[in-house]
Amino acid sequence: MDWFSGAGLWWLIAALLLGIAELLIPGVFLIFIAIAAAIIGVVTLLFPELGLAGQFGGFVIWTIVTVLIGKRWYRDYPVDTLDPKLNDRVARLIGETVEVTQAIENGHGRVRVGDGEWPAHGPDIASGARVRVVGADDGVLRVEPVPPALS
């Protein structure tokens, strides 16, 4: 049996390259595809008579299995982060004090957040007043008045 030629070696090389790509571009789930390629590489080395269709079929099946296992793993054991709201801009705004730029009348108006403006819902409040962001619905901030001592 020649271990260093044939499709098995190519599958293992593909697995290695996918693993390296995962290190260079983390978070793309390439590691699960690499695991599937490694499994098919080993199976092909053990059973060299496995045809190309069997190899690709097995690869597809093992890719689905490893991705589903990985998805479940990350759901059950989430990665801890120092900033859990990093990619949730609206969640980061909750609790912030902002200025009303367009008076909130009949529940609708606009507020300044940083160098931009966001639509806002809340009680009637005059332009220029300070409000606190208490939530958001579909990109519209929910605000409430800030007591004068806190603004």
UniProtKB/TrEMBL annotation:
Keyword annotations of the record: Membrane, Transmembrane, Transmembrane helix
Secretion signal, residue range per the UniProt entry: none
Superkingdom: Bacteria
Cellular localisation: Membrane
Residues spanning the membrane: 6-24, 53-70
Bilayer topology: Multi-pass membrane protein
Boundaries of every NfeD-like C-terminal domain copy: 91-145
Keyword Electron transport part of the UniProt annotation: no
Pfam families: NfeD
UniProt xrefs under SUPFAM superfamilies: NfeD domain-like
InterPro entries: Membrane_assoc_protease, NA-bd_OB-fold, NfeD-like_C
Coiled-coil blocks: none
Cellular-component GO terms for this entry: plasma membrane
Family matches, as PANTHER family: INNER MEMBRANE PROTEIN YBBJ (PTHR33507:SF3)
Protein name: NfeD-like C-terminal domain-containing protein
